[in-house]
Amino acid sequence: MTNNKFCNSVLNYSRLLTREVFIGDLPLGAGNPIRIQSMTTTDTMNTIATVEQTIRMVQAGCEYVRITAPSIKEAENLGVIKKELKQRGYSVPLIADIHFTPNAAELAARLVEKVRVNPGNYVDKKRFETLEYTDAEYEEEIERIRKRFSPLVKICREYGTAMRIGTNHGSLSDRIMSRYGDSPSGMVESALEFVRICRDLDYHNIVLSMKASNTKVMVEAYRLLVYRMKIEGMNYPLHLGVTEAGGGEDGRIKSALGIGTLLEDGLGDTIRVSLTEDPEFEVPVARAIVNRYKHRTSEPALPVTINIGTINNFSPFDYQRRQCASLAGIGGDNVPRVIADFSAHRELTLDDLKSVGYEYHEPTDKWYVSDSAPDFIFLGTSECNIPLPTTLRLIVDAHKFHSFTALDSVKVYPFYSSPGEFAKRVETGAFCNFIYVDAAEATDDFIQQLKRDHQAVLVVGAKRDHWLATVRSLFFRLLNEGLDLPVVVKRDYQALDQEDFVLYSSTDFGGLLVDGFGDGVWLAHNSMLKSDMNRVTFGILQAARVRISKTEYIACPSCGRTLFDLQETTEMIRVHTEHLKGVKIAIMGCIVNGPGEMADADYGYVGSGPGKITLYKGKEIIKRNINSDVAVDQLISLIREDGKWVDKQK
After folding, report:
1. Given a cut of 80, is residue 175 above it in pLDDT?
2. Of 91, 338, 348, 441, which is most buried by a Cβ count within 10 Å?
3. Per residue in 582-641, pLDDT tens?
């Protein structure tokens, strides 16, 4: 991988040109708009319910609708659903979702515009067994796949039906796992095995996806897929999605982080935001993510030349955090630090601190600090005349620094708003200086100055719309220059409403974090509640899996296979377990999405039949087919037995 070429440019927005694929009469790829799709949650055999939900999805802006077809009978009913939709005046392309049933796929391919197959489930099986193959035996397995998969390919070619070959991180087959491991490489090869069969049969109406709940794995897998396609002379369009993202704000953060990072790279032709909510609520979120890129190409190019293949200690396919020195508790082996911006306040108050997780109990003179409390407060020119916890640190405008030296118990650091201001400084007595620079304006002289200064924490932002790539370009320069100072990433979102703020900041900051960039994060938005700002900031760090401050829920978005009410059950489990910092709990509606799709969850709650739940510890079944009315209690007991339970603080 000498050139690591996975996109047109890592510095300037340029959408990757892919092959045009028609899904019915609505094409994707090539120069077409990024398409929005979602999936029904109704029973496929309930024609009217499925039709009416599909109509709600279309009215919300959904351009393709996916419907599960777990067996022949559901596949047959897709034709009935399609007919009913047409009678009501709707011709939205339908996609049959197939996992374990090739015969259902072959029937559905004759009835609807597209079929989705999962290579890990379509022919192979997943029993978490370690298998050993010689090269000859492995080729025999590929030939077995070819014989089982070719009939579907021929039907799709005959009927003009499109196909998504959709790899999921959690459902890689034992065969793939044994040779490639639980890795992006395995995900890519799992799909390409099927793609090569399609090419041999002169079938090219293909869309590819590399979904994962782990955002790092998801981003790496898509990038590696594009790189591998380039080598093999392919340019099939990409369907983007973070699988099992969950619901609410956390689901939106995780989805925007994974999908948005790739859209920033110019990758992606259609997206689905997978939330544990009704599908019509997924569509506006997807639309908001995509709308950000409608006019991105109008921005002038960044006048910097970087060959990604020559960047020291960086690979877009393999996460590695940028190594740097530790200064003021930032960088080194420390988790990324959080800076809360209170510079718009005239004076910092105890209520301000309480809003971000610092609560002072005056009778005992004690501080109670939450797991999601910021590490630094930026005051700018604001005043501070209240007691402060010794663990909290302040950053103030440089010219105010000396007025804070009386705070002996709290560390205070000066902030310089530009390299020019820093160059004109007088000695402050601070052992650490925070210096802001626009990444597009960092001169070579400034870079050389930083090499001589061992007391600097660099604060980086940018004014360009293509903010992420601009900031990333400075990280690339630091790597190639061997500059190991800590870097805080900062962006001001004053013009955004709260919904767009959540989505955009998740992409901007999360996209850097999953590349290993950023020793601190600093989000600013003066019109938003500081409690909301702080919650979103820690949510981004959690979704990027670089700082864990709460329980993580890996919840599938529901579909016609689901055996219980996912939204209600997820909320019930959350109420009982949301205080278990660092514990990952998967809530899966059926066996298709568990245990495989749970990937790296600590515990799994999986529907195994009507009113029945199977509990997992990792990938191991602990309790099988227990009644759903006692399943949550049994899950809690399992966590207790494993020593990971703590009682809620009152």
Report:
1. yes
2. 338
3. 898 888 877 665 555 665 788 988 888 888 899 989 878 899 899 988 999 999 999 999
Can you give the pLDDT at residue 1?
37
Cα→Cα distances 626→93, 577, 600, 603, 621, Å: 39, 20, 23, 15, 12
Give CA angle at 329 (414, 365), nearest 5°. 85
Rounded to an integer, the average pLDDT of 270-295 is 94
Tell me what the mean pLDDT of segment 87-107 comes to. Answer: 95
CA angle 36-40-43, nearest 5°? 170
Q: Which two tokens mark 646?
A: 């703590």
Mean pLDDT score of the chain: 91
Instruction: Report the run of H or E that residue 52 belongs to, with start and end.
Output: helix 47-60
Q: What is the DSSP letter of 588?
A: E
Helix 248-264 and helix 215-231: axis angle, to 10°?
30
Tell me the H-state helices in 163-296.
174-180, 184-200, 215-231, 248-264, 279-291
- Which residues are CB-neighbours of 72 under 8 A, at least 6 positions away? 101, 103, 104, 107
Query: CA 201 to CA 203: how far, in whole Å?
Result: 6
Instruction: Report pLDDT digits (tens) over 391-428.
Output: 899 999 998 888 876 566 678 999 999 999 998 887 66
DSSP symbols for 544-558:
TTSS--S-EEEE---
* Closest C-alpha to 79, from 65, 62, 96: 96
Give how far Cα 362 sits from Cα of 22, 207, 359, 377, 635, Å: 67, 61, 10, 21, 39
The token pair at 540 is 């981004």
Contact 230/5 with Cβ under 8 angstroms? yes
Beta-bridged to residue 615, according to DSSP, are 605, 623
What's this model's pTM, rounded to 2 decimal places?
Answer: 0.92
Q: What angle do CA 532, 536, 540 make, to 5 degrees?
A: 175
